[in-house]
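User: Here's a protein and a ligand (iron/sulfur cluster). What would the complex look like?
Assistant: Let me lay out the input and then the predicted complex.
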Amino acid sequence: MDKLGIYIHIPFCVRKCAYCDFYSIEDMDRRTAYVEALVSQIRSFRSMGTRHVVDSVYIGGGTPSVLSGEEMGRILAAVRSSFSVSREAEITAEANPGTLDTSKLSAYREAGINRLSIGLQSADNGELKMLSRIHTREDFESSFLLARLEGFENINVDVMYALPGQSEDTLAATLDYVMALEPEHISFYGLKLEPDTPFGRDPGIAADVPSEDVQYEMYLSAAKKMEDAGFMQYEISNFAKLGMECRHNLKYWSCEEYLGFGPGAYSFFGGRMFSYAKDITRFIAMPEDSVALFEENYIPTDKELAVQYVMLGFRLKRGIDTAEYEARFDDDFDMRYQEKMKPFLLKKYILKTKSGYRLSKRGMLISNYILSEILDFKEDAE
Ligand code: SF4
């Protein structure tokens, strides 16, 4: 049986953060209707996954932890009744401090959730306020400790850098604080000023963001700090204790199959890529009518998939396995890319490995530039 990942989007947030451009709304009154619609959509895929075993489920958002234990249970019951879910499946829910309590956490465990991803972002209450997060560091700490008490043995903590006004010292203090709590996984993302957000529209915010040089230093010293503490980097933005890498997200970076449910969710399944429009009203009105909900729906060519495989593979610390690339795409990786990679190999932004190539830490810092230089999207996608 082929393996399959399932992503479920929960597009609700208590309050929209000023930097965020993910699809979510603040109107909690639509939650019940949304959960109904989600359950219908999941069930309508019942016949699609008969040759697959689901080994990861990721409930993301938005803020999935606004859902009650009962609502989370209904969604996961729909997944189990529609797909064959492995007993060892990794089942993650994203959660925000300030939306968790003991009975909810206990119901989530009961529903089968065995991994939590908690959005801390910063342990500095001033930075949290500036980001317009709904929680304080103290809220986070009590959520984290409650989750441990309820038996969650696999917890990720999200941390952000390159925040307006953030210094290398406040970032180091956040990481020290997080690592002292001993989570299994840390996601470490740089703030991006997205144009359609209050942050993106505010020139004062842009002026306060640390310079590129400082951001590079922040990234390199944070990566070292985490690795020194036993959090091994396995992807540009992700660090984990041994064996605790996020299996679901690894599927995306390895171009494996996944099905997404809910508005804005993406799927790669049966050789087809599709996504749904970010429109909760339409979704609630016709959750089983995929055609009406599609934003994109196409079969990528082998060349397009090969380009994507390289783009995503270079995000991973293990990098590209050239033999796997050749077996998958019937294409010689060295012949296609070596000439273009040469300057980056010389400067050690790209390193040769036993099985292929990977980016060095410095290479990861400029991964977008490197990929834009070595992948000629038009030519490579022909
Ligand atoms: S809680 Fe997360 S998804 Fe919601 S607005 Fe804030 S950053 Fe975006």
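Summary: The chain has a mean pLDDT of 96.
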